[in-house]
Amino acid sequence: MVTHSVVARRGRVTVGCLALVVLVGVFAFVASKVGTVYLRYYQFQDAFNQQAKFAASDSDDTIISRLRAKADSLDLPVEAQRVHVHRTSRGIVIWSQYADSILIPGAPREVDFTVRAEKAF
Fold first, then answer.
1. Which end of the chain has a smaller Cβ tally under 10 Å, C or N?
2. What are the pLDDT digits (tens) for 65-90?
3. What is the distance between the alpha carbons of residues 99 and 115, in angstroms, rounded to a whole number?
4. Would you say 116 and 94 are in contact if contact means Cβ atoms under 8 Å apart?
5. Closest Cα to residue 87, out of 46, 44, 117, 43?
6. What's the pLDDT score for residue 6?
7. Which residues does 84 contact at the CB level (< 8 Å), separation at least 6?
């Protein structure tokens, strides 16, 4: 005769399992808030690198207007649209600084970003 020591629990959830589900949910929520801010930063940085790559054939005003449009399309703070361009005989440097907010209930954070790209001619 075989006896089973496993008791089937139908419709019941243990506290440990419920706590794990809540913990995973909170982690996913926070990760999505933080990830969104950093993803926008990396996309903006990529736009700076792209503009620096082709800067030899574009004017400063063209570069600034494209990067301002990118900041606007990424819904970045207004400070991100303050794009600076410095050309020398040896290359170009493009940069901007801004602060973005991570809106987590109970623990809002502000993160400072510096976006910079340079290219030697």
1. N
2. 999 999 999 999 999 999 999 999 99
3. 11
4. yes
5. 117
6. 55
7. 94, 95, 96
Residue pair 72/80 in contact by the 8 Å Cβ criterion: no
How many Cα atoms sit within 13 Å of 113 on the Cβ side? 28
What is the pTM assigned to this prediction? 0.81
User: How does residue 104 score in pLDDT terms, banded at 50, 70 and 90?
Assistant: confident
